[in-house]
Amino acid sequence: MKRIFMCLVVALSMFSFQAKAQWVVSDPTNLVQNIISAIQGTSTASNMINNLNESIKIYKQGKEYYDGAPV
Asked: Rounded to whole angstroms, how far apart are CA atoms 68 and 71?
């Protein structure tokens, strides 16, 4: 009985805490770095798309070769 009571007290105490608001912290240098990274990422994204297109082309060439081979 004592164990159940203690478990109930612990469970109820978990719901009694109140969340406290925190101050909003802004870092302008971090914001500028994120913008610069986004701009630099566009060239990386275009490289990734070009590499993906090249991989698709190679895949299709290999598929045509192996699909055309007699069994």
From this structure: 9
pTM of the model: 0.41
Specify which of 8-12, 27-31, 37-41, 60-64 reaches the highest per-range mean pLDDT.
Answer: 60-64
The model's pLDDT over 26-42, given as tens digits with 9 standing for 90+, comes to 677 777 777 777 777 66
Q: CA 39, CA 46: separation in Å to the nearest integer?
A: 12
Main-chain dihedrals φ then ψ at residue 31, nearest 5 degrees: -60, -45
Tell me the C-alpha distance between 59 and 51, whole Å: 12
Task: For residue 70, give the 3-state DSSP assignment.
Answer: coil
Which has the closest alpha carbon to 60: 49, 68, 70?
68
